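Contributing: when you submit paired examples, paste them exactly as shown. First protein:
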Amino acid sequence: MKQIFTFLFLFMCALASKAQENVMICDFDNAYPDVSAWGDVAFTTTNAPDGTLASGQMGVLTIAPDNENGSMIIQLDFTFDPHDYVGISLDAQVTEAGLTPAFIFKVEQSTQDNSVAQVQDWTYNVRYSGSGDWEAINLPFSDNVISELDAKIANDPNFPADQYDKIELAPGAWDNQPEFTMNIDNIMLRTSWDDGSGIPLTKIAAFTIWNDGNGTIKATGVNGNPVSLKAYSTSGQEVVEGVNEVQIGVKGVYIVKATDGKATNTQKVVVH
């Protein structure tokens, strides 16, 4: 019995550690999934220059003027839930100095039609600076991706949010840019940004959340440690907060965030 318990404990710890790590999607060297391009975007690879953020092989995108219909597509060999990450990062360089194309991106499920599963960010909030140098680009899920995903869950509580396996990047889409070349490398799913901002989300934590279906949400921490609970609507508005237990009085779908100061757990909750 002790051996079984030890195995389960180590297994859960491994899951927790894995869930909290950044995930390298594509470095065009060791991590190199199926990458393609279509329409107004062409893709190839070449050796990265020394002394830059890139290393080894890098991707090279050639984007037609205004990019009305084209993107780079990364087909992953694993699935993920966008709730578990703060967003996508990549290192990028636009070789034509002075150009500031926006980054438009989509997250998709290869097993479902895009109209059903696709979530995207068309806000133009993130742009290349125009420096002509390599830059670290952060594309957050918080702007539109999570709200779109939560709306799908609200419409269908059984929606498979953890089955995303495709990322589509469309630099300069409908952005009044001339033709340009973009070098890219080190594309990652991020649990937090380098400056520590963003909320590292994990599915496995050192406590348990349970829901009685009628609006009572409880959490139990290790050794009785207090667990802070906050419930949000699918639009991101905080509804209620408390310690170890909260009560939600209105039927619907909510996102509950729990933390004990060391670990964080988020969970969809349906109140009947």
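Second protein:
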Amino acid sequence: MQQTDKMMLRSWLNVSIISLMVFLSSVGVFAQVPGISKNPGPILSGGLSVGYDIGMPIQAQFMVRNLASGLPLTFRLFTGNSFFLDPGNAEGVRQVFVNEATNGVPEKSATRWTFGLDVMHPVNILGLKNAYLEAGMRYSVFTGTFQYVGGDELFDVHCNQIGFGLGLDSYYRVSSRVDLVLSVGTDFYLPAALEGHDATYNPNGTFVNQREQFTYADADKVVNQPKVLPKLAVGFNYGF
């Protein structure tokens, strides 16, 4: 990850954490009050989920409800890692980022970290008794790894993107502290620089170490970085 990308991620995380901490400190959230949402005081919970987007994401989340009297919003911070991803067209990636060589057997893999902050509002929809409409910001760190066995090539392609998401969560009580959670939604990501080997292609048309006459559109076509991601997930949430 380049220094500018690290600075972007650090700034995004700082803004998200500071915003949440301002809310927490203003209502004395550190006096944790367990129980259901009708009890006075803020309520903390956390959970895990697994599902599908462009791979299999495993997500950990932290939620705060009842920040203030009469405030119906819930705030959620989360991070997730997606597995079983297809990073793209190995032959095309080699041409766009390295050279036109064709020797070697291509092998590929990918991983993606996601960080997010959601605002959730209770809704009465489809007969669901405990459902929340969610919307928030996303930050995605995508890395595709390409190796050409016998061709002496091994390199990563990186793409770090800002996005936003919309979704619907439904909670089903399992015990006094545990809820089963079903989620559906879609994330949308903005175009961002694609970096691999020593080449970089930017959405604005600029580039570093361009190969042949390839453009950002060519790089975007052969790399499977996130764009529009339908999501399904199931998990649990534990009230502290």
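If you have annotations for the second protein, write them as plain sentences, like these:
The radius of gyration is 21 Å.
The first helix runs from residue 3 to 26.
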